[in-house]
Amino acid sequence: MNYLDFAIGMAMNSGEIAMKCFRKNAIVSIKKEGDYESIVTETDKEIEKFITSEIKKTYPNHKTLGEEYGGAKEKENFLWVIDPIDGTENFVKGIDYFSVSIALQKDGKSLVGVVYNPATKELFHAKKGAGAYLNSQPIHVSKTTSLKDAVVSFDSITTDEHKKKLVLDIQKTFPKIRSIRVMRSASLDCCYIACGRYDGHIATCIKPWDIAAAGLIIEEAGGTITDRAGNSGYPYIKHFVASNKKLHKELLTIIK
Fold it and tell me: Which three-class secondary structure string do you get for the chain?
């Protein structure tokens, strides 16, 4: 079995686990990291345990890095980067905008990326150099060239400091674009850029598992993803801007 098929299989099986609890009484706890409190469910933990177990059985020499249980250091030789549920708040509230995100990296570069929304049954995937796909159909970023026609999404963690940064980003950007979205799943937001539904995304304070898979999907669909200074290096950047490439320079200029 190749890496991509393996990742797709894990994502779809993980989606089945998620859907057993979606819009039911999810068991919720709070995970505190400094001044940031994040929501975590028993389903997040179950999915991450399932994925890491499958990887250890199939590729015992590979390392894993996940949102709930951590793992290996960045930029291992072969590293699977996992977000069991990206959009946990949506999952808990019964909003069908969440996903399982799985990427395989070699020496810090994504080779394979899979993002699966089991509620809508949309599966995005990419393999380095082989294009990006939604449910096996090729996808491409939008052809939008004017900011006034652009739909841009935003995301941030919910500390007071980052809420202020999020509001400032929106204040700077909103007057120059058509509309905004704040849906709170970075992986899906990026995949929506990849298939042309959104034109850009601006995020503060993100983690590798937020964009390890979706970043590759964007690039393979013809888009771009950088930090706010325009440097590449995802997913090991602390904030990012993603776009259909045509609008990237303008978005970076606005938020500087």
Answer: CCHHHHHHHHHHHHHHHHHHHCCCCCCEEEEEECCEEEEEEHHHHHHHHHHHHHHHHHCCCCEEEECCCEECCCCCCEEEEEEEEECHHHHHHCCCCCEEEEEEEECCEEEEEEEEECCCCEEEEEECCCCEEECCEECCCCCCCCHHHCEEEEEECCCHHHHHHHHHHHHHHHHHCCEEECCCCHHHHHHHHHCCCCCEEEEECCCHHHHHHHHHHHHHCCCEEECCCCCCCCCCCCEEEEECCCCHHHHHHHHC
> What count of other Cβ atoms lies within 10 Å of the Cβ of residue 125?
28
Residue 39 forms beta bridges with which residues? 30
What string of pLDDT tens digits covers the 256 residues of the chain?
699 999 999 999 999 999 999 998 777 777 666 666 677 889 999 999 999 999 999 999 999 998 777 676 666 689 999 999 999 999 999 999 999 999 999 988 999 999 999 999 999 999 999 999 999 999 999 999 999 999 999 987 777 888 899 999 999 999 999 999 999 999 999 999 999 999 999 998 888 899 999 999 999 999 999 999 999 878 888 889 999 999 999 999 999 8
Q: What is the pTM of this model?
A: 0.94
The CB density around residue 32, as the number of other CB atoms within 10 Å, is 8
Instruction: For each of the domains in the chain, give its residue range(s) and CATH number, in order of start.
Output: 3-138 (3.30.540.10), 147-255 (3.40.190.80)
